[in-house]
Design goal:
It contains four helices and no strands. By secondary structure, the chain is mainly alpha-helical. α2 runs antiparallel to α3. The protein is globular, with a radius of gyration of 13 Å. The two termini are 23 Å apart. 12% of the residues are buried. The model has no long low-confidence stretch (mean pLDDT 87).
Length: 82
């Protein structure tokens, strides 16, 4: 996994999102990153495997969306289930 993360360049193909519009892919990877982080942190484990999701969503998502979602998480108004 560390080797995969090290050689990461851009978001790989994801069969769940075969269309050109990658909005859902962006949002799903954002959720997966936060879910992974929360789950591994709760178990007291290293959360470094979660970095994969972070790199993917940072590659796909406009930074304005990410900033808005981060603010919503801090305010407790984020619509996704983390």
């Amino acid at each position: 996994m560390d080797e995969k993360i090290k050689n990461y360049r851009t978001a790989p193909f994801d069969a769940r999102f075969p269309n050109t519009n990658q909005t859902r892919n962006c949002f799903q990877n954002y959720l997966d990153f936060h879910r992974c982080n929360k789950a591994l942190s709760a178990k007291g484990q290293d959360a470094s495997p979660c970095q994969w999701y972070q790199r993917v969503y940072k590659s796909l998502c406009p930074m304005g969306w990410v900033a808005k979602w981060d603010d919503q998480i801090e305010n407790g108004s984020f619509p996704g289930k983390i």
